[in-house]
User: Which sequence fits this backbone?
């Protein structure tokens, strides 16, 4: 797999996301720039420059791909027009925005606001207006967790429970996850998933949002069912895992991470585990790795059609890999048997 | 004896994988049966990818 190298950020990447069609890749980094790239050739469509050169932590295109949001250390969520880059709304908060995402139906967005001295961390949910322009600063609901009872929320995502519809899944700094009603913010269930301290670093969903993968500093990634929060599978890595994604088409998951940034200068690339590691989703076996970064991988995204994946690293580069034929041909014997049986 | 032991172990692994695959297939089929056709307006091709 020969990668396409995307060079446009001067500092570490913090998040990358494909739009629903997969033709665009959005990126943010500690340089405060939002990058938009054509995924098929790595050409840059443009950048959205913020008002202040502060680190950005999160980016997300709306499912319709006509607006996108970004959030970061300027304590704001910015909503941009994808075409032209016009800033159409700014949500302002007390502290850093660590994560923000549109719901899969495009009707809501959440922002995770960092816990700081004197400020309790918040999860704030807003309705997205039908015209995608006239946003209101009045949240649908706001959640705060008492730090004495539950560790701060580190990341979150939108799940789909076949019986109740869209729910919010919050991931905490102590390895717990919380399922929240997306209409009124009521807590449905909380469970410990990763061993303490077990900071959950990323959460990404299947195409239908009915199951998801969490990555953790406890060197594991776990696959969970949205409805029950049951752990379906566990993948064990060799270093802290910063990010994990589920691949459509093939039954794989991919994990990224590596040695902490502060230890990078004392660590060779090989020892640092700066690689994307593929596991069989169902059998939990490691099946392959893709090297190339010279710093920890902070963020991974898989094309919605399952044809490529991209990794963003502390080294400031995005590497886009198109999957080749052996990737699609790879099957365990039992999978071949099952396919053959289904044809008879 | 080594060959026999290895062969028994390989059979065990195959059986375990068959069971895991069958459980996963049943889990996904159960969910798919409950999903609306136009979930989030996902493209038809992407819907196929769900399975």
Assistant:
């Amino acid at each position: 797999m020969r990668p396409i190298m995307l060079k446009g950020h001067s500092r570490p990447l913090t998040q990358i996301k494909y739009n629903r069609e997969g033709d665009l890749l959005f990126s943010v980094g500690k340089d405060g720039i939002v990058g938009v790239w054509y995924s098929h050739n790595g050409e840059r469509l443009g950048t959205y420059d913020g008002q202040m050169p502060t680190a950005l932590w999160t980016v997300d295109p709306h499912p319709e791909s006509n607006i996108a949001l970004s959030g970061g250390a300027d304590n704001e969520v910015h909503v941009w027009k994808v075409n032209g880059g016009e800033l159409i709304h700014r949500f302002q908060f007390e502290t850093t925005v660590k994560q923000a995402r549109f719901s899969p139906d495009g009707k809501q967005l959440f922002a995770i606001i960092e816990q700081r001295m004197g400020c309790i961390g918040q999860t704030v949910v807003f309705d997205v207006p039908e015209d995608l322009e006239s946003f209101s600063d009045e949240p649908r609901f706001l959640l705060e967790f008492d730090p004495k009872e539950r560790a701060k929320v580190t990341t979150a995502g939108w799940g789909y429970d076949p019986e109740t519809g869209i729910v919010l899944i919050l991931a905490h700094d102590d390895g717990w996850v919380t399922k929240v009603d997306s209409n009124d913010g009521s807590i449905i269930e909380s469970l410990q998933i990763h061993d303490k301290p077990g900071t959950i670093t990323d959460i990404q969903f299947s195409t239908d949002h009915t199951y998801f993968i969490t990555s953790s500093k406890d060197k594991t990634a776990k696959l969970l069912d949205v409805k029950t929060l049951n752990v379906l599978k566990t993948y064990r890595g060799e270093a802290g895992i910063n990010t994990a994604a589920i691949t459509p088409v093939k039954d794989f998951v991919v994990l990224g991470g590596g040695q902490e940034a502060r230890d990078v200068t004392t660590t060779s690339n090989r020892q640092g585990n700066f690689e994307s590691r593929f596991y069989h989703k169902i059998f939990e076996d490691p099946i392959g790795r893709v090297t190339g970064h010279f710093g920890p991988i902070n963020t991974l995204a898989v094309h919605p059609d399952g044809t490529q994946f991209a990794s963003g690293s502390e080294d400031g580069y995005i590497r886009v890999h198109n999957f080749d034929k052996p990737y699609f041909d790879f099957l365990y014997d039992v999978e071949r048997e099952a396919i053959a049986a289904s044809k008879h | 004896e080594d060959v026999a032991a290895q062969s028994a172990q390989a059979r065990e692994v195959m059986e375990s994988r068959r069971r895991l695959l069958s459980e996963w297939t049943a889990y996904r089929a159960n969910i798919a049966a409950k999903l609306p056709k136009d979930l989030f307006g996902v493209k038809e091709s992407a819907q196929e990818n769900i399975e």
In short: The two ends of chain B are 42 Å apart (CA to CA). The helical segments of chain B are 2-32, 44-50. The interface with chain A takes residues 14, 17-18, 20-21, 24-25, 27, 31, 34-35, 39-43, 45-47, 49-50 of chain B (CB under 8 Å).
